[in-house]
Amino acid sequence: MSVFNNLPSPPAVAKKPVSDTRHGIARTDDYAWLRADNWQQMFKDTSILDPEIRAYLDAENTYMEAAMSDTKELQKVLFAEMKGRIKEDDSSIPMKDGPFAYGSAFVTGGEQPRYFRIPRDGDPKNESLRDLLLDGDKEAAGKDYFRLSGIDHTTDHAFGIWGYDDKGSEYYTLRIRDLKTKQDLDDVLENTAGGGVWAPDGQSFFYTLQDENHRPSKVFHHIVGRPQSEDRLVYEEKDPGFFMGVGGSLLDDFIFIDIHDHETSEYRLLSTKNLTAEPVLVAEREEGVEYSMTEGGDVFYILTNADDAKDFKIVEAPVSAPGKANWKEVVPHEPGRLILNHMAFARHLVWLERREGLPVIMIRDRTSGEEHSIAFAEEAYSLGLQGAAEYETDVIRFSYSSMTTPSQLFDYNMATRERTLLKTQEVPSGHKPEDYVTRRVFAEAHDGEMVPVTLLYRKDTKLDGSAPCLLYGYGAYGIAIPAGFNTNCLSLADRGFVYAIAHIRGGKDKGFSWYEDGKMEKKVNTFRDFIAAADHLVKENFTSFDRIIAEGGSAGGMLMGAVANMAPEKFAGIIAAVPFVDVLNTMLDDTLPLTPPEWPEWGNPIESEEEYRWIAAYSPYDNVEKKAYPPIIALSGLTDPRVTYWEPTKWIAKLRDSAPDAGPFLLKTNMAAGHGGKSGRFQRLEEIAFEYAYAIKVAGKM
């Protein structure tokens, strides 16, 4: 029996067929017109959106509100619960850098962070010592959307670059703040990727500019006090398939220009001793070869998968000649041990690795070569390696949590191996870890692979198949979903839900091969793994098919669309957040922001008929049929440059047309936000409360 009763008729949407033929294969798209012709300009000024498109999106929002009207009070309750678990006046533990320690804090009721500094050895708990550098709430006043990109200070601590996006389109404006007077200089830099890297003299910095197709394709050098139009172009990446970023070193000796797609990378270096020189190439890009660099005094440490080091190794090279011919192995490749990132300090080399799905921090004495690890004993947990802001240090910082254990922040002395607990995440409304169970189980996939699934549920939950389950998945770009503490999902667990994360192929949860087996021609493994996770949870009586609500966002939204087509009977409902569901059309359009850089992940259907057919076989929008789909809700943002608003909009329209007796199918478009949803910390909770209210409603637990 449907939990959606007495719904009004859904909005009518016109069909305006557009035909397309590629590789001799013809397709017709009835809803292509929902993509605004002026989308690039509209991301910067939403008032110019085609009135017909706006009217339709508004009508869909009205229909969605009607369908969810009986959850209003539940949303308020959920929001209050989630907010009650957040320490409103929370503060970070400042990180030491020179004469100061820098941190951030929130105030009670505040949506945005405040950035501050204190004297280096000052008491972090003494708020009177805080020198407020940037008040995010003040800067966000009067804006529907506002997201900060942080603040980065000069070596002499006199100035800071800070950036903001006030539309959700991820075009950031940069300002320069005098950290003594707290006044911004006249410099205003538009259309940046957010943030910059100061030169050591504090008189100039480097930043990336977003082009008209929203790609960070140029690095510029800005001199303080001059207009942006006079900024020197340092490097331009001509290949639209590559992203570009700019970073600095702890020693202030180099500016790193990082050029990469999802499987190939290239670095260019600019010595800070000569800021007007041309950047020097380190190792020319080779398809499928990745590398990243960190400083090490007279050497660079380079993390790479070169020479068939699938799970990565660390090499070193002299600063004077860092080319590939001079790479010397330091940490060898070990199959099944995936090295995720690395850092170097004066006396130690540090890296984060993952074995059997669990993270470990490794530390090596650079003189003796002696190694030791930082690890924990829980069945499933998450580690975060923050490192340090200074090169001459023996102390690094890391975080630890599990699904039941609140986040803990530690300082760790690499020489003495002393671990100092700095902070434990407070849950003001209370949390008893012993009331909950976290487990890691393994689901057998169609080809015999074992898919890890992390579970959280209350100890008193009956595991007889009657419990509802929210099953979350992502599975793309090699991103692993950590088994960390999440106060929000406790609201589901407290209502008898099993909260589950499926660590499916497409991520690197079980090493690099786990990623390779979930991309390109093997992409369908991602979807089948997720279905296998659902099958296993039912088989082991954690839940039942008519009680599983699936959730995923962005590339995980593609997953939602695919499993809806492949196994609609195995889900009671589906939540697809900013879902990448119109895969074929998007990959055929090389003017879209992410299309060329995405080809190594999904395939290039423009050039290859074979790759066209791979994508066409699973692209959710292209495979919608007349089926008994479960209720589905799609969430999108009007100014989202990553998954454009028209993808979920078209998908919902096609679902409704193809399967009029199924669903219902709902669309919620945030008309003042982009890919990440609302920007404030409590505004974001409102969105999560909405999603959870949908899951509870669909599960029949209202």
UniProtKB/TrEMBL annotation:
Gene3D superfamilies registered for this protein in UniProt: alpha/beta hydrolase (3.40.50.1820), Prolyl oligopeptidase, N-terminal domain (2.130.10.120)
Alphabetic keyword roster: Hydrolase, Plasmid, Protease, Serine protease
Keyword Hydrolase in record: yes
Organism of origin: Peteryoungia algae
InterPro entries: AB_hydrolase_fold, Pept_S9_AS, Pept_S9A_N, Peptidase_S9_cat, Peptidase_S9A, Serine_Peptidase_S9A
UniProt-annotated stretches for the region Disordered: 1-21
Transmembrane listed as a keyword: no
One matching Pfam family: Peptidase_S9_N
Lineage: Bacteria, Pseudomonadati, Pseudomonadota, Alphaproteobacteria, Hyphomicrobiales
Domain Peptidase S9 prolyl oligopeptidase catalytic: 485-700
Entry similarity comment: Belongs to the peptidase S9A family.
Name under which the protein is recorded: S9 family peptidase
Start and end residues of each Peptidase S9A N-terminal domain: 11-424
Top-rank taxon: Bacteria
